[in-house]
Batch of 3 targets.
Target 1
Amino acid sequence: MGKEEVGNPKVKFTVGREELLDDMEPLWQRLIQHLLQSSTVFKKYYASIIFEERKKELRKKTANGEMHISIALDEETGEKVGYCIKSVNDEKTVKSSQSSWLSLIGDLESEAA
């Protein structure tokens, strides 16, 4: 039996800043639902998190920094299929050993369908 070739969907990106937060909410909700179903340790946390609170947290975190949002769209259907939020603030400390080479704190959140 031969291997079936499956084409990659063509994706285009909408890129912006804080103004795209509401546009990525449906994808964020899907991410939270997935995490609720798959998590055993943080279920209570994911059940309590609210998108409006996450938006406030991101805005506060980047009040003296920057936020960049990318939303991936399937070119054929126009459906939103993924997002990525990147932020940097001016606290000048590092959260994880993986990013110890950074002089600024960063945040990365993403989801793909």
Target 2
Amino acid sequence: MSPLVTVLELSALLRVSAKTIYRWVAERTVPFVKIGKAVRFDRDAVLAHFRSQTGEPCPLSIPLIPRAGSLKIGNSQRRPFVKKGDGNGS
């Protein structure tokens, strides 16, 4: 079993809206598990489900997109934002 993913992670993976994912859950179109009130998805099970529906290799088998705060882009030493002005601070 692969790690469970959230609605937003699955929507990014499948390139559909979160609203579409919730509709699929309501229609029982996609495999999911409920943990309390939260809905989670087994990434591999979802991809296998779509492969079985199309009968073709799944074009969706791309790696998960990292969460927004987990990427380190560029230089890790960030310069503080300085407001442009006349230099006297007013």
Target 3
Amino acid sequence: MAKKQTSNNSPVETANSIMTKNKRTDLGNRLQQYPTVKEQVANFIFDAEDELATAFERFSAKQLMRWSNPKLSGLDRNSLTMDLFMTEGQVAGEGIIRTLTIRHWLRLHFFCAL
């Protein structure tokens, strides 16, 4: 008969170990999804025709003027502008991700109810 192996770890240590492994797995999954989510947010911004489009145009013009300095040669300024707008841009006092989330939720719940 095989001996049952016992763990020297306490239940708390075991739970912490499992949670840490789950966090690493969750982080890995999120990192794998990042390019897709970023593309969806960029498409949302590019497809906008309202105050979001205006805010992006103003933000882009301001940033591109700041970055006209030759020290930034070799950088993709358009990509950098989009990344910054996604994280720092605002529309009517709301962040871009929050704006996207609200509009997406409204589309799902309002238009599906019609």
